[in-house]
Amino acid sequence: MAGVEQKTVEDDEGGMRLDRWFKDHYPGLGFGKLQKLIRSGQVRIDGGRVKSDTRIQPGQTIRVPPLDVDHKGAKPITEKTMRNHGDADLLAQMLIHEDPKVFVFNKPSGLAVQGGSGLTRHVDMLLESWRNKKGEKPRLVHRLDRDTSGVLVVARTRGAAQALTAAFRTRDAKKKYWALVKGAPQRREGRISTWLVKDQLLDGDRMRVCEHGEKGADHAISYYRTIETAGRDLTWLEMEPHTGRTHQLRVHAQYLECPIIGDPKYLTSDHHWEFPNGIQKRLHLHARSISIPHPSGGMLEVTAPLPPHMVQTWNLLEFDERAAEQEDER
């Protein structure tokens, strides 16, 4: 970087620790180096001296001294981004992996994967803008709910689509989701095995747990583990669907009596629960990572950063993503 820069704190970064902000924007900057810059007063907020654990607020200006590391640059996709960008540009903003056979996108919350009633913009439509020289359109091989963010795999060729679809069908694809739920499961980790059936209601389809043998019922299996808790009210869960039923993780969280925060279908007024201050009333479910056989051989493993509203919540609750890595190592 050539000289001193003045960076404005974005709306979704409110409440974030200053050292976390630097980690997100300058991942190559070491912890020790940052501490020296802060102690010497080279890093300031609105002209004042700060500490590494200072909580930043939207609109504040952070003084960034010359650094010998790259700025990450990419900004999270917000509803404003989705409104103001063209189709091809929005896809480029979402892209987190690309190779000759596969695209992987970090789908933002609120963007549908396929069309439906009243939808004027969705991923399948956006892909029209990325047809190749032969006129081939990238192909969807799986779906995410409209309000679920995270990893979405798209095939670039017909052959890749066949291979990836087969991997999902045979359950060779391993998907992990992060969720913030109400309360805490009785067991820190476990397996959920139920039968699910779809009810068609006036406000849309809703899944429910049912008895084996009920007409239209499908077997659903999910795994979960607790990463961190915030008091008795909120828990950060990692969830892994073994099957792929509609709303599976959302209804399974409800089955645990721990519905996902911000879920309009499965966290209802019946739960008599006051929404915490500072947490947006949006679905807190994110497709964090995927591991799937690559059409060209080997494994494709991709991780997607949290969406802005979940970053805000994680900052508020002081959840540390390193906690998930430590749990994985156990």
Description:
- By secondary structure, the chain is α+β, with helices and mostly antiparallel strands.
- It has three domains: 5-64, RNA-binding S4 domain (Structural Genomics Hypothetical 15.5 Kd Protein In mrcA-pckA Intergenic Region, Chain A); 79-171, 2-Layer Sandwich (Pseudouridine synthase), CATH 3.30.2350.10; 175-329, Pseudouridine synthase (2-Layer Sandwich), CATH 3.30.2350.10.
- Helix content is 22%, strand content 29%.
- The chain has nine helices and 15 strands.
- It has helices spanning 18-25, 31-39, 79-84, 87-94, 123-126, 158-169, 248-255, 308-317, 322-329, and strands spanning 5-8, 44-45, 48-49, 61-64, 95-98, 102-107, 139-140, 149-155, 174-182, 189-201, 204-210, 218-230, 234-241, 285-293, 299-303.
- Strands 5, 6, 7, 8, 9, 10, 11, 12, 13, 14 and 15 form an eleven-stranded mixed sheet that branches.
- The radius of gyration is 21 Å and the shape is globular.
- The two termini are 39 Å apart.
- The mean pLDDT is 88.
How would you describe this structure in keywords?
330 residues; alpha+beta; Structural Genomics Hypothetical 15.5 Kd Protein In mrcA-pckA Intergenic Region, Chain A; Pseudouridine synthase; 3 domains; four-stranded antiparallel beta sheet
